[in-house]
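User: I'm preparing a small set of examples for a lab meeting where we compare how different chains pack in three dimensions. I only have the primary sequence for this one, and I'd like the structure in C-alpha cell form so I can line it up with the others. Please keep the answer compact; I'll paste it straight into my notes.
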Amino acid sequence: MTAKIAYADVEVGTELPAQSFSVSRATLVQYAGASGDFNPIHWNEKFAKEVGLPDVIAHGMFTMAEAIRVVTDWVGDPGAVVDYGVRFTKPVVVPNDEVGAVIEVAGKVAAKMEDNTVRVDLTVMSGGLKVLGMSRVVVRLG
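Assistant: Understood. Below is the C-alpha cell output for the 142-residue chain.
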C-alpha cells in the first residue's frame, strides 16, 4: 500500500477531516484484553477513585491509537507513518453510563519536510479538555 495523498497536493495549513471516537467501559475491557494492560484504573471505578482519579480512565496507548486514525485514514496507508509522539496531558475519563466518553481529534499539516514527508499536528480533546499535547505525526506521502 502507498499513501493516497500526494506530497505536491498538500500545503502547510491543510486540515485533515476531523473525527470523533466513542469510548465505553466495554471498549476499555476489550483493549485491556488485546494489550495485556489490566491495570484496574482502566476498569475498576472504586480502585481508580481510591488512587485519586475522578473515575475510570482510558489507556494512554488506546487514546494515542484512536487519535492517529485521523492521519492513517487521511493518508490511506498506516505504513506511511514515519514517527508519532505525544505528551499525555489529561486522562480520558470514561463514566459508567450509556454515553461513556468521546475523543475528538482534528489534524493540520504543520510542516512540509524532505523526502516527501509532512508533519501533522493533532488536537485531541475529551470532555472539553486537551488530553494529548505535542501530538505530532510525521508521514511519508506519495
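A couple of notes for your slides: The mean pLDDT is 96. Strands lie at 15-23, 81-88, 101-112, 117-126, 129-140.

User: Perfect, thanks.
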